[in-house]
């Protein structure tokens, strides 16, 4: 692995100027390295962070990828990581014209990292420097505690998908206009979770608050709560109780174990807290990349195509560019290509915004012919997609913009699969062309970790009681035993997990749809490394 030469760096700097003139925003400093395929294979399990802490699973991943490479060799073009400064890696076999295209792709990724609000918790520090310090700490702990360090890492990694990413994000950059804790509690918790008022009553309270602020100025909040206490005498006691409980609450299971585990709070086990904190912090850092993959790759593909087609360095390389670009952004008939879907969606949104299709005037139209010819010529399509890039994640992006017009324009459909018993081959068929079905297929492909909360009332006699809030998907049964074994070790006592399991009644039809699915509550208990399962 080595830095790119001065000639290639000059090409990169030229691409930066053109990208900035098109509206992309990113830091001045970047680092670019040339790597071999072997380097790529060895860095990939560490998320391309060379300084990330060592873990035996990384070595297993390297061996697996090397085996796959021997069977199916291929040259990855690039990869970029969200650090300060941003670091990108390029295959040493890339010609100059291809690097121009790839540089545009990488710069769009960097623009996304540094401007999308889901990455805002990553803007204030450099992960490579922090990872190096973490790696040195774990190396020192290994020299003192041996294999127990790897046990703790493995047990922590088993639950690092449960980190409270949105909770951490909500605490950042709220500015000076942040509402008071009393006001947040009243509107977010007291009215919606404790009193559970109607929508009309909730809106009345908002109107009352706005009116109090208008009439009393700086004393508006105090005046508003004087009326609240008259209407809800129990409010003050509820707020005091909430504040006292909040000081002992932890945002997720990993942080709860760090704060309250009897085992970890023993003096001889304090070193384990450092390991758990490293795993938790690293997981939270990479959460936005998992949650914005379609947007991120679509944004980068949109810009590498847009900018490279305007670049005079494409001359003489139109055909190889078309071949490479088609390989990256081709829309498969079966399956999902995030590069292709995201890029086409950004193109579609830009064109629709230019016509004013996201205005109230357009949405109130019922006649399809009028919608087809609607065009306000706003010229704000490019500005609109920059706003989308800043404020959306994959879920909100797909939920907001994958509509029937987009499906029809790109001739998309949901593919089904069935077995032809006569020929004993799988047949693919068009299952649906409706936007709702296609959108649901996309939602099913998104990252969505289970929601598991602590039940303090049921956590008795030193046992930890976890409650899985069912959201239509059961837990993967084969992972429950090992994961609970790790939690039992970190907690230092019995662990219970209450979840739901699907019970299928009837036989599936030819489309694979079951006649009826019901959910049965089940409790798993891990005690002294033995797992018991009980129906509730």
General description of the model:
With 536 residues, this protein is an alpha+beta fold. The protein has five domains: 2-116 and 292-325, no CATH class; 128-164 and 251-289, no CATH class; 181-246; 330-445, no CATH class; 451-535, no CATH class. The chain is 54% helix and 13% strand. It is built from 23 helices and eleven strands. The protein has helices at residues 6-21, 37-43, 56-71, 96-115, 127-145, 148-157, 165-170, 181-194, 199-216, 220-231, 235-246, 253-260, 270-291, 293-309, 318-329, 338-355, 360-363, 368-373, 381-391, 394-401, 404-410, 435-445, 477-491; strands at 2-3, 30-35, 78-81, 86-91, 414-420, 425-432, 451-454, 464-469, 495-505, 516-527, 530-535. The strands form three sheets. A five-stranded mixed β-sheet has the order 7-8-9-10-11, covered by helices on one side. A four-stranded mixed β-sheet has the order 1-2-4-3. β10 and β11 (530-535) form a beta hairpin. The radius of gyration is 27 Å and the shape is globular. The N and C termini lie far apart (57 Å). The model has no long low-confidence stretch (mean pLDDT 90).
List its salient traits.
536 residues, alpha+beta, 5 domains, five-stranded mixed β-sheet, four-stranded mixed β-sheet, 23 helices, 11 strands
The backbone outline, from C-alpha atoms, is globular
Oligomer type: single chain
Low-pLDDT stretches: none
* Widest β-sheet, arrangement of strands: 7-8-9-10-11
Number of strands: 11
The N- and C-terminal alpha carbons lie at a distance of: 57 Å
Mean pLDDT: 90
SS-based class: alpha+beta
Sheet of most strands: 5 strands, mixed
- Work out the strand percent: 5-15%
The Cα radius of gyration reads: 27 Å
């Amino acid at each position: 692995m080595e830095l790119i030469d001065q000639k290639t760096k000059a090409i990169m700097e030229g691409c930066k100027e053109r990208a900035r003139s098109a509206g992309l925003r990113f830091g001045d400093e970047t680092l670019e390295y040339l790597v071999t395929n072997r380097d790529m294979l060895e860095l990939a399990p560490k998320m391309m962070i060379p300084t990330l802490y060592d873990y035996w699973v990384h070595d297993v991943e390297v061996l697996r990828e090397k085996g796959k490479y021997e069977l199916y060799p291929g040259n990855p073009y690039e990869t970029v990581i969200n650090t300060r400064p941003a670091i990108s890696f390029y295959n040493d076999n890339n010609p100059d014209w291809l690097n121009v295209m790839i540089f545009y792709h990488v710069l769009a990724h960097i623009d996304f990292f540094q401007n999308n609000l889901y990455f805002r918790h990553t803007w204030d520090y450099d992960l490579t420097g922090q990872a190096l310090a973490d790696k040195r700490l774990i190396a020192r702990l290994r020299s003192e505690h041996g294999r127990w360090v790897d046990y703790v890492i493995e047990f922590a990694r088993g639950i690092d998908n449960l980190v409270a990413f949105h909770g951490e994000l909500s605490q950042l950059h709220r500015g000076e206009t942040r509402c008071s804790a009393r006001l947040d509690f009243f509107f977010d918790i007291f009215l919606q979770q404790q009193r559970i008022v109607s929508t009309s009553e909730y809106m009345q309270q908002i109107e009352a608050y706005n009116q109090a602020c208008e009439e009393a100025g700086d004393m508006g909040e105090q005046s508003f709560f004087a009326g609240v206490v008259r209407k809800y005498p129990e409010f003050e006691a509820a707020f005091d109780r909430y504040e006292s409980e909040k000081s002992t609450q932890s945002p997720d299971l990993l942080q709860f174990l760090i704060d309250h585990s009897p085992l970890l709070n023993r003096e001889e086990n304090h070193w384990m807290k450092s390991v758990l904190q490293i795993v938790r912090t690293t997981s939270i850092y990479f959460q936005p990349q998992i949650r914005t993959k379609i947007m991120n790759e679509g944004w980068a593909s949109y810009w590498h195509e847009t900018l490279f087609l305007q670049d005079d360095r494409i001359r003489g390389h139109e055909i190889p560019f078309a071949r490479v670009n088609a390989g990256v952004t081709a829309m498969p008939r079966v399956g999902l290509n995030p590069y292709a879907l995201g890029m086409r969606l950004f193109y579609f949104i830009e064109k629709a915004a230019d016509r004013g299709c996201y205005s109230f005037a357009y949405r109130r139209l019922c006649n399809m012919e009028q919608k087809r010819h609607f065009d306000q010529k706003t010229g704000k399509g490019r500005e609109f997609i920059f706003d989308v890039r800043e404020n959306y994640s994959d879920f909100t992006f797909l939920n907001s913009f994958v509509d029937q017009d987009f499906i029809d324009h790109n001739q998309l459909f949901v593919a089904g699969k069935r077995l032809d018993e006569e020929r004993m081959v799988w047949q693919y068929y068009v299952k649906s062309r409706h936007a709702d079905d296609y959108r649901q297929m996309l939602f099913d492909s998104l990252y969505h970790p289970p929601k598991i909360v602590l039940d303090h009332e049921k956590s008795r006699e030193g046992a930890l009681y976890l409650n899985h809030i069912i959201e239509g998907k059961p837990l993967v049964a084969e992972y429950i035993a090992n994961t609970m074994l790790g939690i039992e070790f970190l907690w230092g006592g019995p662990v219970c997990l209450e979840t739901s399991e699907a019970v299928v009644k009837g036989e599936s039809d030819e489309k694979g749809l079951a006649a009826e699915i019901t959910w049965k509550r089940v409790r798993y208990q891990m005690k002294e490394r033995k797992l018991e399962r009980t129906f509730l």
